[in-house]
Amino acid sequence: MASMLGSVRSLTRSVIPEAGSQPAVCRWNSTWSMAQERRIRGAETRLAARKKFVEQAIQQEKIKVLEKSQTREWKTGDIYAPHDLSAAEMKKWKKRQSPSTDAFDALSMNPLHQYKNFSIMSEYMSEMGRIRHSSETGLRPVNQRKIAKAIRRAIGLGLMPSVHKHPEILLAAARLKIQRGYAA
Asked: What is the pTM of this model?
């Protein structure tokens, strides 16, 4: 066994060249060059696969960035063109368009006095009955506080439901959908 191990070592020394020297010429030299070529090809394919993986990762990151920048909320049945998904269109939707002037200041109304008018109150409430944020309503901070107080007052007095829009508003919206030809 020891003699066999010694012969394998001598064989590998003759086949595997040392650093900086020419490979020894022997009958296995062609086998050595084929194995070396296979290793080089394997390394090249691994390098190409790694490059492809890195490119895919970069592409996925770009897609994630685009998804995060896509601020338009699509609803069921919305029709869009491929251009609508472009970066230029998404940039337009990224800018939230809030009213430039306060509606109550423009009409010189006090929001606190409008607690009986559920159609005005429902404009400043979400579908689930939450008070909309000032970034959505476009009201000045003073009027935002007043409208919030008016909504809470109307709910407290029982003039408005606290968990959804007023039934008359929902009915008007349903009628409008029917007139436009949408399914109710």
From this structure: 0.44
